[in-house]
Design a protein that fits this description.
- It contains 24 helices and 22 strands.
- It is α+β, with helices and mostly antiparallel strands.
- It folds into two domains: 98 residues, Arc Repressor Mutant, subunit A (Orthogonal Bundle), CATH 1.10.10; 353 residues, 3-Layer(aba) Sandwich (Beta-lactamase).
- The strands form six sheets. Strands 2, 3, 4, 5, 8, 17 and 18 form a seven-stranded mixed sheet that branches. The protein has a six-stranded antiparallel sheet with strand order 11-10-9-22-21-20. The chain has a three-stranded antiparallel sheet with strand order 1-6-7, with no helix packed on it.
- Strand 10 and strand 11 form a beta hairpin.
- It is elongated, with a radius of gyration of 35 Å.
Length: 642
């Protein structure tokens, strides 16, 4: 018994000690904990996004602060909201419109007893018997409000009330954007419950529409999280009304660009700033905006000349890309559509969206099929001629080139040399009127090699919806010849840049517009390192043959007049039969392309240009304006004369 008493005393001492610890010694801690539970903290409307710079530090995308009136419902009653709306109407101008129903609802809230007395007894009886629900009863009440009755209300106040209650109750609402300095001062002096002034942020573009589509768009406050990105963004901690990147760089790098919102503590239905906003991280691009603008000007001038020349009725767009072969960065990305009045639409984004037959400019990749499969080597020589398959027509080079090897086949753009590779790929030797019995496997042998150069493949460019071109499933002998000279599958201008980069370096490197991400203090948060996707699909000795063939193209072949003669370079021209559907007919056109890198021995720059439907086939003229050579020559002059 004595032992039990001792245990009870010890137990009581422990309990008393614990109570002392909780209520006296640690009182402040638990008071703070309870206070934190009761404390309501809300976020500001928005924070400025990170800026976007070019490679030389020029601001391409910035923010401008817009003074706004913001409302958050907090614990405010409807009666208080009606008073707030009247006060706002007396002090602030508003140009919004609301529906007739919203006006009636505002009248009803201010005159409930009067409107309720208008409701017939049989209607109320149906409501009490649950034959009508509350929403149906409200509709009946609103129908009883006449236009004469609405003349009694302050319509401006009705608009403010609507704006305060439009959307989810827990969300901040923008009552008015772009308020004047005077309105800003008035709102702060009024100190209305739930109402505050805030700075909302809009994107501005110091260079106007230049590359605006590439930079991308940000959702509006009304849009918030777009439906197609809703799940993805919610998982990352975004709120439904957050403004987010919804296209291209703004979307791809939203996690860097996103700012941190200010935080406010609610005290007596007023908001007290406890944490200021923080701008998002900045992006530095590889784009040189001054160089970009110069190329745009060159291209526009040449497109106008082309459009004013013979045989250019269906010509309307052209694309130019300049990059760095060593790291896959994009220095300039130009696309233009010329209209009938000779004005222009920016088509820079179509460098990744549109695809075309490129013709002979892809022969560096198609000749690789011959090297990779042991069908040709540095000792292969043929006499340039024509090929005729069963029930087909004669297919020849653009002129008789005599005896040629692989280098001269590239230099003078022999179709016959490429056709023989396609024939031999089927395991046969060419004879006139033969059948190849081509299969999808033969087409895939081409496509797999082409993909390793970036053709018909994703380049990895940090933009949305990159197109990989059209790969038809139709298999015929004649089409196998077509794919061997770039006349079957289609390729994007951006993939042509990666293709020439791969020839220049021997590696297919991921293309990128981003160079680095910068903290607000200017320090580097993240830097892009070149990413090798794969090596060129042929041995180095054959890659050197392709490079030498391309060098000969620019020094004594079909690309002789294309570049600055002072700088050794390598390149390949391309001409493709193409087709354009116009109203109720199909027009036969000619599209042109060209790729190059320079200097030849240590590549610093690569260029790809594509001019679809430059001319069309008619009985009066074969003329084709030399837009590609004129544009590229001007670009190389800019690069090495400046």
């Amino acid at each position: 018994m004595k032992r039990l008493s001792i245990l009870l005393v010890v137990f009581n001492i422990i309990i008393i000690g614990r109570l002392f610890y909780l209520t006296i010694y640690n009182k402040d801690y638990y008071d703070n904990l309870e206070s934190e539970k009761r404390e309501v903290v809300i976020e500001g409307m928005s924070a400025p996004r990170g800026r976007i710079f070019d490679v030389k530090g020029n601001i391409l995308v910035d923010n401008v602060g817009v003074k706004s009136i913001i409302y958050n419902k907090l614990n405010i009653s409807t009666e208080e909201e009606l008073v707030i709306a009247e006060v706002l109407a007396s002090n602030i101008e508003i140009n919004e419109e609301v529906s007739l129903r919203d006006l009636k609802y505002y009248y009803y809230l201010n005159n409930k007893e009067k409107v309720n007395n208008l409701v017939p007894e049989n209607t109320m009886k149906e409501y009490r018997e649950r034959k009508l629900n509350s929403n149906e009863l409200l509709d009946i009440k609103l129908d009883l409000i006449s236009s004469e009755m609405l003349e009694e209300i302050n319509k401006k106040a009705a608009i403010f009330y609507y704006l305060m209650n439009n959307g989810f109750s827990y969300q901040d609402k923008i009552i008015k954007n772009n308020i004047t300095d005077e309105e800003y001062i008035i709102i702060n002096k009024l100190s209305l419950s739930g109402i505050r002034t805030d700075i909302t942020w809009e994107r501005i573009y110091p260079y106007g529409d230049v590359l605006k589509d590439i930079f991308g768009r940000v959702s509006t406050y009304k849009q918030g999280l777009p439906l197609e990105y809703k799940t993805e963004y919610l998982k990352q901690g975004y709120k439904l009304n957050d403004r987010v990147g919804i296209s291209n760089l703004e979307y791809v790098y939203d996690h860097y660009l996103r700012g941190t919102k200010a935080k406010y503590k609610v005290e007596n239905n007023k908001l007290k700033l406890i944490e200021s906003y923080e701008r998002g991280k900045d992006l530095v691009l590889s784009i040189d905006i001054d160089f970009q603008i110069k190329i745009e000007k060159i291209l526009e001038e040449e497109m106008i000349k082309a459009k004013n020349s013979y045989n250019s009725k269906y010509f309307s767009e052209s694309y130019v890309l300049v990059g760095s072969p060593s790291d896959g960065s994009i220095i300039a990305m130009v696309g233009k559509k010329i209209k009938e009045d000779l004005s222009f639409v920016d088509y820079s984004n179509y460098n990744i969206l549109s695809s075309f037959n490129m013709g002979s400019s892809v022969k560096g990749a198609t000749i690789s099929v011959g090297y990779a499969n042991g069908l040709i080597d540095e000792n292969t020589k043929v006499y340039d001629s024509c090929i005729k398959l069963y029930r087909g027509k004669n297919r020849c080079s653009w002129t008789n080139l005599g005896t040629i090897n692989d280098l001269n086949a590239l230099r003078m753009s022999s179709n016959y040399f490429q056709y023989l590779i396609a024939v031999n790929l089927t395991g046969k030797k060419y004879t006139r009127n033969m059948r190849l019995n081509a299969t999808m496997e033969h087409f895939n042998l081409y496509r797999n090699i082409l993909k390793d150069y970036g053709l018909g493949n994703i380049t990895g460019i940090d933009l949305l919806n990159e197109n990989t071109g059209i790969k038809s499933r139709t298999v015929t002998d004649d089409l196998l010849l077509n794919i061997s000279v770039g006349l079957y599958d289609t390729y994007t201008p951006i993939s042509m840049l990666q293709y020439i980069n791969t020839i220049a370096t021997g590696k297919r490197i991921k293309l990128s517009l981003l160079k680095s991400v910068i903290n607000s203090d200017g320090s580097i948060y993240y830097q892009i390192d070149p990413k090798v996707l794969n090596k060129a699909p042929v041995d180095e000795k054959y890659l050197n043959r392709i490079r030498e063939g391309f060098r000969l193209v620019n020094t004594s072949g079909t690309g002789y007049s294309y570049t600055n003669r002072k700088v050794p370079s390598a390149g390949k021209t391309g001409t493709a039969d193409s087709y354009l559907d116009v109203v109720d007919k199909t027009i036969s056109t000619t599209s042109t392309s060209y790729v190059t890198y320079l200097p030849f021995d240590k590549p610093e720059y690569s260029i790809a240009i594509v001019s679809p439907h430059l001319s069309y086939k008619n009985s009066t003229s074969n003329y084709r304006y030399p837009i590609n050579s004129r544009v590229v020559r001007e670009i190389t002059n800019l690069l090495y004369n400046d």
